[in-house]
Amino acid sequence: MLTTLAIDGYRSLRSLVVPLSPLTVVTGANGSGKSSLYRSLRLLGAAARDGAIRALAAEGGFPGTLWAGPESGAPASGPVQGTVRRRPVALRLGFGTDADGFGYAMDLGMPIPSQTMFGADPEIKAEAVWSGPVLRSGSLISERRGAIVRTRTGAGWLTIQRALAPWESMLAEFGDPDATPDLLELRSGLRDWRFYDSVRTDADAPARRPAIGTRTPILASDGSDLASALQTIREQGDPAALAASIDRALPGSRLQITDHGGRFELSLRQPGMLRALSAAELSDGTLRYLVWVAALMSTRPAALMAVNEPETSLHPSILEPLAGMLVDAATRSQIIVVSHSAPLVAALERSGAAVHVLEKVDGETRVQGQGPLDAPAWAWPTR
Questions:
Q1: What is the pTM of this model?
Q2: Cβ atoms within 10 Å, residue 239
Q3: CA distance to 125, 198, 203, 323, per residue, from 282 (Å)
Q4: Could you tell me the pLDDT band of residue 104, with boundaries at 50, 70 and 90?
Q5: CA within 20 to 30 Å of 274's CA: 7, 113, 168, 204, which one?
Q6: pLDDT, tens digit, for every residue of 269-327?
Q7: Nearest to 143 by CA among 100, 191, 183
């Protein structure tokens, strides 16, 4: 389980270290940095697929994602003024875990000028994998500095005889079961992270259309296989819990999945209606709730699931059942919820979730109430 998330130099997150629990809620006013924290998790997950640099490009490029304020942060008072940079440009992301897991951090920086049209791509300057919550010399397992990777073995440190390109992550490129089993385990864990943040419910949403039916233990990020995912829970999961979760939010409603020549279609039979309503006829809120049912009751729980603003389009009466599903899912997966819904946050906090309120002070995102000595211990790898 992740116990710490650390971000340095990313958008408004100049230097942030956040403690994590089995169920963590991140909230705050609009513009406080919630989305940036969520995106930083996505970037870490992309490292295991060698896609962190591509993910940064999708956000507008490396320079546009860097902290734009003074290197040491904005002053407590007085005008903001530029200063001479003393440290290299860096965007650093990392996480620590409990004693049974592996922590990871990466340091991205500006490339060395050369004759290439890809000069705006960042380079991975350093990476580190360690055991437990904090990087220390005694807990270090593997490290990458520049193009060179070395890993700890029973006989001492082994330098891997293959230079990495500046855009390649050691997590994506190395994972030999014999030479680097810990890297392989960490990569597998990161690839199991799931993110749900942009499931459409408009009239043309994929979730509204019939789709080829196949066993679906993991709902697609766009919800296109919603009918198959719900039917999989019925047949391979807990059908009673599935029916109860729908009834709690939509009293008297019953799920119906029909097969039309191999294509599964979702519909909902509701009290007082002479026929079931198809997915195309359901309200945005009803459809979105069914998406959360499918995601959170997955028959193959994720190591970590991050959900961004799950309250979107939901009626206030549905927030309590949603909170109950999130709490239940946190018994099988580590859950991180980003939300600005006060009722949902309150419901989750009453159920034991750790709640962190973000605030922006002089352009910099901070955890409300977290003093200089309150943040979890953290150390970055050196270049």
A1: 0.92
A2: 13
A3: 49, 18, 10, 22
A4: very high
A5: 204
A6: 999 888 999 999 999 999 999 999 999 999 999 999 999 999 999 999 999 999 999 99
A7: 183
Q: 192: which 2 tokens? A: 């199991």
| DSSP of 179-244 | T-HHHHHHHHHHHT-EEES----STT-GGGS-EE----SS--TT-TTHHHHHHHHHHHS-HHHHHH
- Residue 232 sits at the vertex; the CA angle it makes with 42 and 38, to the nearest 5 degrees, is 15
Domain boundaries, the chain: 2-11+46-193, 196-300
Instruction: Say how far apart CA 229 and CA 299 lie, in whole Å.
Output: 9
Question: In this structure, what token pair is assigned to residue 18?
Answer: 């956040």
22 touches 121 (CB < 8 A):
no
Q: Smallest Cα–Cα separation from 110: which of 102, 101, 119?
A: 119
* pLDDT one-digit tens code per residue, 236-246: 999 999 999 99
For 160-168, the CB contacts below 8 A with 24+ separation are 164/124, 166/111, 166/121, 166/123, 166/124, 167/50, 167/53, 167/121, 167/123, 167/124, 168/50, 168/124
DSSP string across 111-159: PPP-S-TTTTS-EEEEEEEEESSS--TTTEEEEEETTEEEEEETTEEEE
As a whole number of angstroms, the distance between CA 291 and CA 373 comes to: 41
Q: Residue for token digits 């997590």?
A: 171
- Under the banding of pLDDT at 50, 70 and 90, the label for residue 78 is low
Q: Name the nearest CA neighbour of 38 among 70, 13, 66, 9.
A: 13
